[in-house]
Amino acid sequence: MKLAPKIIILLLAATFGVMSLYSFYQINRAAKSFNTDAEANHILLLSNSLGFLSKSLWELDKDISIRGMKPLFEAGTIRKIQMYDADGNFFSGIDIKKSAENKVEIVEQDSSTTDKSVNLKYLLSQKKPFDLTPSKMISVMINKSDIYHELVGSLWWKETEFSESKFLGYVILDFSTEYIANRLWEQKITFILFTIGLSFSIIILCYIFLEAQVISPIRKLVEASLDIASGKFSRVQLGKGNDELDKLSKNFNYMVDKIEHSLNLIRGLSEASQVIVKSRSIKESVEIYERYLISLADAIKIEVWLNVENEALDDFKSVIRLSDSLEKSRHEPILEKILSSKEVALESSNANLANESTNYNVIIVPLLNSKNIFMGAVECYYNKSLHRLDEEKSRVIKSLSTSFVTAIENEWHILREKNRANLERDIELASAVQDSIISKNIPVSSLYKYSTFFKTASQCGGDWFGVYQIAEGKILVLFGDVTGHGTPAALITAVTRGASDMLMQCVQMGAVQANSDLPAKVLKSLNECILDTGRQTYLMTMVATLIDFKSQKIYSSSAGHTPPAIISFKGSKHEVKYIYPATGARLGFAKETTYESKEFDFQPGQQIVFYTDGIIEGESPSNREYGLKNFKKSMETHAYQDPEEFVKNVTDDAYSYFAGVPQKDDIALLVIRFLDDHNN
């Protein structure tokens, strides 16, 4: 639908709606006013006759009552008057009837032509107490229909001023408000005709004005916009006024000029983007980027700074200027400013990123990849006359910078691919080294049986354990977990293995006593070693446990590691419970950390289970952790099995729970069963 019919329909609906609401309000208001006046007038008529009618009922003189009723019919609205005594029995009344010639005739009622009694309960509900003001002895108007109403007056008689009043009966006055309905209908017709006439007058006048002042100019703008869509840059003829449509026409013509200019600029940017992206090296892309910035954005020269890591990083160390390899820390004030907003910034002072004195204003452009991660920055040098970067120059710089970022990413990708093959070989070597670090040659003894399990989350892991024979009938178990996994964690485990081997040599040589304090001393020494190596970036949890088979004692100390589990057997019953060694800070967290050892008893036939948190923190497809409860239940199920079968079935239960979800962390287990002579 075109605009003109829409405006006509809208004006018609609005005008007719408003006028209809106004008419409805006025008619309802008049109806309420007329009805209120009618009620007041008839109450006044009846109240003036109450005294006369009460006297007639007191004297039981019907003629007096008829004489008192007849003057009321002069109002022309009274239909019927009836009087009843206090018991509801008919006394007298007057009614009007229309003859065949449509003449009104007043007819006296008697007991033969009307009911001798009326609903006494109804009359009692309308009864009013005696009052010196007659109108207060009349009920409110009772609506019998839309145009017929009724008033009930209470008849009282009082002989003298000092005598008591006596209730005699009721008078019922029926009247019509048909004349009010007729007047309201006349007003409705008048309002409707007035509303229709006024609505159409307003619509015609408004349409004539809108056609000349709004619709016609808009039609011209539509035609001009269609010309632009077809490639023809038409302008709209400007009016002589200064209203909104004249301003719109001026803005439209300005927009056409800008579109034409922008299309030419887009062609240039498209050409520049293709050439920059196709460049064969960063040096070549910088040269092309600079040439187009000078051409399209009026720059004088540029300087490119890139992350020294040749990688997109927000947490980079420094940037290097490609023209002369000058390196600057990320904490340069201008860099901090650009990193906080990641927006193009105009530096009006004589200081640029390199803190060199210049005679230019410098625009610093952050180079951000598609993930909004910082890759470097570009300094665009402009004359001192440039105090503000306009929107067009900003768009040109951002568009060229996007293509420049793509070219840089392509070059860095090629460099990464070249290094990836070497890196994979290094990871394979690191994995092989770590495999040799894990203590697979656990000392064989008639005092115990053992079984192990170890699986990394990546090629290199951070879990490590070692079992050392430190004296006859004594072994030391070290079971640890580096925070995280991968190559850095594997390197920490290598350092831990080397330090542990040296400590065990000292114990075997007698330099350190193999007593109950040994686990705490080992953790303290390893803490200092890992602190120097990991520099508080990589931490390690560990439990160190000395098992003395002669005294049947366990001495254990923990650096924040998961608690070992002891499985006991009593006849056909078995029990799994976790033991909690004295716990200190994780290894590598703080210097001069001290640890304590805690003593536990064991019996032949029991077994101890060491594990890392990788198994209990593994998740099912519904993202629910395996947890200590499920792990304990699995150990209880397989408690009677040989250590090798026990480890196999416990890990099978865990991986069944994981249901194919990749493990997030390394998993390691060590089970040692204590033997007695019978087991041997």
From TrEMBL:
Protein name per Swiss-Prot or TrEMBL: HAMP domain-containing protein
Membrane-spanning residues: 6-25, 189-210
Sequence ranges assigned to domain HAMP in this UniProt record: 212-264
GO CC field: membrane
A single MF term (Gene Ontology): phosphatase activity
UniProt source species: Silvanigrella aquatica
GO BP of this protein: signal transduction
PROSITE patterns listed in its UniProt record: HAMP
Domain of life: Bacteria
Keywords, in A-Z order: Hydrolase, Membrane, Transmembrane, Transmembrane helix
PANTHER family, per the entry: STAGE II SPORULATION PROTEIN E, STAGE II SPORULATION PROTEIN E-RELATED
The keyword Hydrolase is annotated on this UniProt entry: yes
